[in-house]
Amino acid sequence: MKTLTQFPYNNVLVIGLAKSGEAAATLLHNSGVRVRVNDRKPLEENPQAQKLQAMGIEVITGSHPITALDDMEYVVKNPGIPYDNELIQVAIDRGLPVVTEVELAYMLMQDHLIGITGSNGKTTTTTLVYEMLKASGKSTHIAGNIGNVASHVAQTTEQEDVMVLELSSFQLIGTETFKPHIAVFLNLYEAHLDYHKTMDHYSYSKARLFANQTEDDYLVYNKDQSVVQQLVTTAKSILVPFSQKEKLNNGVWKDGQYLYFKSEPIIELQRIMLEGKHNLENIMAAVAAALLSGATVEGIRHVLTTFAGVKHRMQFVKEVHGRRFFNDSKATNLLATQNALQSFTQPTILLAGGLERGNALDDLAPFLRNVKAMILFGETAPKFKQLAIQNGIDTYELVDNVKQAAERAYHLSEEGDVILLSPACASWDQYRTFEERGDMFMDAVHTLK
Questions:
Q1: Is residue 1 part of a domain?
Q2: Does residue 123 share a domain with residue 172?
Q3: From residue 179, how far is each of 74, 89, 122, 172, 222 by CA, in Å?
Q4: What's the chief localization of this chain (predicted)?
Q5: Is 150 found in the same domain as 111?
Q6: Strands (DSSP E) along 156-197, which ranges?
Q7: Does 121 appear as a known binding residue?
Q8: Residue range 256-273, pLDDT digits in tens
Q9: What is the pTM of this model?
């Protein structure tokens, strides 16, 4: 396992555990750095803190006292902790660097990094690139927001290995020197304003992906979205666009029959297994990143003709008596649910709701034309009820959870219907993760008679 050999700080505070905090603290400790860990969860309820304490790491739990910063030179924070947290604010006021653990991952592995961000499509694109490189015979690792902690995975890499990172704005805002050789910027839509407060800050956070790139690096970006085009004008790297609307001499594009990279036909569109206009954007971005990283056209074609999607993202679960169930629990914003609804022409029962973030739902209205009923749950259920009423959807029910939602949707459905879990909201009002929410839904579907 690799360690940090030229780390310039001797005393580091890790704030917030979960998987990323535990990985960062362990890496720093194994690298000979004095580490202090601070986590809000009490020690007796905190097995991760207990484990770190048993390793000889100083642990402070139960609150975030300002004294945790005493004698500290550097702060690694869990991405989920907002910057208006008092301890983070004091650290910044004292001039301490405040980073997320992906900064440590970069210190371990500065070559052959692919970083992927966007408001939607990150997981699908990251997985596609990973599979394309693997199918091309390259030693490849996948990490980041996709579930594998980057700084842990980076410790296991060899010199020529490639690491594909899914990166959220929460992770990127906490970077200083981080620089992927290939950056992929998929799209930018209003999201996470409860954390970032303004679109300007959210945009700035996403643009950290390529802020440190040089003329030796590549930036794959969505040429069809003006806000992305505007942001990438500041990049020093080589721009590689993708577009569904125009022919490109320097990127990925399509005509009515083929997908191309520059002038080279890559694959016939009808051979691509993954459906949906939004997924074609993800595919275009993945093709560019994979080719720039040394993937073969044969490897790319193999993946595109066999890859049907990732778990919890438009995942086909099961057909029960002519009803097709889809798990799109990873749809945590309106755009993702819009994309999901556009994928079907059949009568659809939509299962939606979750964490209240103050967002209006009006932008969903044009996409409800095939929705015959809505089953609603979570904090936003009353808002979705009003959306149903305003759009002439007479059949709607409020339930306690996605298990009940699946059961009620089946009861209300007819042969030929699609039953779609696409919540358009984060899961944290009822579930620890969107994965937990999706798993409950799938378990319920598999028990239907």
A1: no
A2: yes
A3: 20, 25, 18, 10, 19
A4: cytoplasm
A5: yes
A6: 162-166, 182-185
A7: yes
A8: 999 999 999 999 999 998
A9: 0.81
> Which CATH number do you get for residue 410?
3.90.190.20
115 and 92 within one domain: no
- The residue among 100, 58, 56, 53 whose CA lies nearest residue 76 is 100
**Residue 134 is part of a domain; what is its CATH number?**
3.40.1190.10
Annotated ligand binding at 120? The verdict is: yes
Q: Are residues 78 and 115 in the same domain?
A: no
Token couple for 367: 């996409």
122 is in an annotated binding site: yes
Full residue range of the structural domain in which residue 128 is found = 102-304
Sequence-distant (6+) residues with CB within 8 A of 33 are 4, 7, 9, 10, 11, 12
Consult the annotation and say whether 118 binds a ligand. Answer: yes
- pLDDT score for 315: 85
pLDDT of res. 192: 64
The residue from 43, 73, 99 where one domain ends is 99
Run of H or E residues at 420: strand 418-421
Average pLDDT over residues 227-235: 95
Whether residue 109 sits in one domain with residue 44: no
Alpha-helical regions (H) of 167-209: 169-172, 193-196, 199-207
166 three-class SS: strand
DSSP string spanning 309-348? Answer: --TTSSEEEEEETTEEEEE-TT--SHHHHHHHHHT--S-E
Q: In 3D, which of 339, 351, 340, 329 has the Cα closest to residue 411? A: 351
